[in-house]
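hey so i finaly got around to running the thing on Cytochrome C from Pollutimonas thiosulfatoxidans. pasting the sequence first so u can double check i didnt mess up the copy paste, my clipboard has been acting weird all day
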Amino acid sequence: MVWLARRLLMVVLTLTGGAAATVSANDQAPSQAAPYAQSTAAYKDYMLQCAGCHRFDGKGAPSRGVPSFRQSIGVLTRLPAGREYMIRVPGAAQSQLTNAELANVLNWVVATYSPGQLPRDFKAFTASEVGAVRPYRFDDVAPVRRRLTEELKAQGHELAPYTFGSN
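ok and heres what it spat out for the 3d tokens, dont ask me to read them lol
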């Protein structure tokens, strides 16, 4: 199965010329985040570990409860609890990535899909930050996501709609 995923990745990289997903000219990453959008290793890890749900373009599948990353995910880095949420969601916490690889993927995701929503004083995710909170996985992410959405909304920030667990 791993060979199939690698083969698919090679096809995608060949068809896209190896280019990572891009953002519009209006989305300018703060200088601290910009280099992460160029990481080929993080891009490959995203394609193998995250794109199955969040899609190759970061748009997710909102009708199936998978939120879009575009112009949204970066706002979570404005709150310590938001940063923890990004690390602790099941797809991230339970991925096959090392703590360093997961930190790089998280940095790539926010720099690629949501640079305009990052705080000016954005601090990159680190392996030690990931390692400190990753073991504490959520029993249910929906109520945590709702609390974060409300807290960010009170600060004037919009998070992508999240329909999972809203029944």
